Every structure is written in structure tokens, then in C-alpha cells.
């Protein structure tokens, strides 16, 4: 009977040792996986910061383009106004020339 109790105790002890070894292996695997996941998380953080900087740069570029477009529109309006003014001067000059020709022909006609 004592022999069986000792044998059973030894078997339980071996079983507990095997379970402890299995748990230690599982803990090591979990630590390895955790380390890999931590590296991946750090890499994602770095990429996220880079994307945030790129996003800010894109916003700056868009603002610059909008300002440039507004400036070009103003320049286009100024050019259109200047062309309109020049056209008005041309029309007035034609009228003046026509009036002068009429006046000259009346003045020099017999």
C-alpha cells in the first residue's frame, strides 16, 4: 500500500512537473508573440506619424494651390478689365479718327 502511495505521489509529481514545463513553454511562446506584436505596434506608430506628416504636407500644398489659384483668378480678372479698357480706348480712337476725317473732309471740301 505504501508503495502504491509513493508511486502515485511520484506520478502526480511527474505530472505536475510536465504541466509546469508545458506552462513555461507556453509563457515563452506568449512572450515571443508579445515581443513581435510590440514591434509591429511600434512600426505602425512610426508609419502613422509619417502619414500624419504627409497629410499635413498635403494640406499645406492644397492651401498653397488655392492661394495660387485665387491669385491667378485675380490676375485673369485684371487682365480682362485691362483688355476691356484697351478695347474701349480703341473704340474711342476709331470714333475720334472718323470724326477727324469727317471734319477734315468738310474743312477741305470746296
Concise account of the structure shown:
The protein is an all-alpha fold and 110 residues long. The protein contains 1 helix and no strands.
What can you see in these coordinates?
By secondary structure, the protein is an all-alpha fold. The protein has one domain. The chain is built from one helix and no strands. It has one helix at 2-108. It starts with a helix and ends with a helix.
List the defining traits of the structure above.
mainly alpha, rod-shaped, single chain, 110 residues, 97% helix, 1 helix
Write the layout of secondary structure elements.
Layout: H1 2-108
Helix/strand-derived class?
mainly alpha
Largest sheet: none
**Percent of sequence in beta strands:** under 5%
Number of strands: 0
Rg estimate, integer Å: 47 Å
- Tally of contiguous helical segments: 1
Query: Which residue ranges are poorly predicted, with pLDDT under 50 across at least 5 consecutive positions?
Result: none
Shape: rod-shaped
N-end to C-end Cα span: 161 Å
Average of the residue pLDDT scores? 91
Amino acid at each position: 500500500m505504501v508503495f502504491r502511495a509513493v508511486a502515485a505521489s511520484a506520478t502526480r509529481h511527474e505530472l505536475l512537473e510536465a504541466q509546469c514545463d508545458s506552462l513555461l513553454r507556453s509563457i515563452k511562446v506568449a512572450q515571443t508573440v508579445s515581443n513581435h506584436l510590440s514591434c509591429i505596434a511600434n512600426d505602425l506608430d512610426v508609419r502613422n506619424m509619417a502619414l500624419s506628416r504627409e497629410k499635413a504636407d498635403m494640406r499645406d500644398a492644397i492651401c498653397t494651390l488655392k492661394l495660387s489659384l485665387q491669385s491667378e483668378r485675380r490676375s485673369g480678372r485684371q487682365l480682362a478689365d485691362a483688355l476691356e479698357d484697351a478695347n474701349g480706348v480703341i473704340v474711342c480712337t476709331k470714333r475720334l479718327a472718323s470724326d477727324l476725317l469727317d471734319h477734315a473732309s468738310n474743312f477741305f471740301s470746296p
